[in-house]
Amino acid sequence: APECKRKLNKSWKLVSTWNKIELPARVVPISAEVLLAIAGLFMKWQWQKLGLMLVVAYSTFLRTGEIFRIRRENVVFGAGNQPAVIFLQDTKTAQRKQILWEKVIVKEPLAIDCLKALCLSCPLPQLLVQDSIFQFRRLWKQAIDELQLSQWKILPYSIRRGGATSAYKRGMSFEELMQQGRWSNIATARIYLDEGLQEMQSFSLTPPSRHLLQQALSVFNRCKPARNAWKGGKTRGDGKL
């Protein structure tokens, strides 16, 4: 409503004061273990490409909408096991910086294997994931319910938050984190990651959830493209990290 411009000063002041007093309700950053379990459920339900893309998105800190805009022609693989590059168009950060393209680097072996599987027999102009974001959100909620994690605020954005926090926890340099997360403000990124680390450490699973998680991880281990290291730890045959 353009006619309201500069006429809501007191309202904006109230919002600003409220935001300083009340902490925002952020989504919970999920660990690699939870992410792989959700991917396992997706594969069990025959949504193979979505399951593979979850691994890629977690490794590269993708935003939810970006998952569904990657085309085969936007992916470039290095020789052998060298990192792959995904070019992203019209992203939130790109719009803010007024640039057309951004890129993220895929370094983790398991994420590269999943990306290769997504690109296999995929024509150049085609989207890697052709399912709708609405279908994805519905499946995500089903997976959270299936794992009995509904008491936590675990939403699709937990993929980006969890991937970045996990990388921060295992010692990725802040320069790499800034580049991969595509943040421009160091202070904001540090607050984002420090808060995520605290929340991840406070996240705990009930025994029933732990059992369901291990079952879903076993499915992922059977369905994943290759058995490689993930986040610095080797995945064992019983579905544990």
The overall average pLDDT, rounded, is: 88
How many strands in all?
Answer: 3
> Regarding quaternary structure, how should these chains be classified?
single chain
State which percent range the strand residues make up.
5-15%
Distance between the termini: 52 Å
Low-confidence regions: 228-241
* Adjacency order of strands in the biggest sheet: 1-2-3
Helix content: 40-55%
SSE string: HHHHEEHEHHHHHH
For the sheet with most strands, the description reads: 3 strands, antiparallel
Shape: globular
Number of helices: 11
In terms of structural class, how would the helical and strand content be classed? Answer: mainly alpha
Radius of gyration: 19 Å
Question: What is this entry, summarized?
Answer:
The chain has 241 residues and is mainly α. It has helices spanning 9-21, 32-44, 48-60, 64-67, 92-97, 109-119, 133-146, 158-169, 174-181, 186-202, 207-223; strands spanning 75-76, 84-89, 101-106.
What distinguishing features does this structure have?
241 residues; mainly alpha; three-stranded antiparallel beta sheet; 11 helices; globular; disordered C terminus
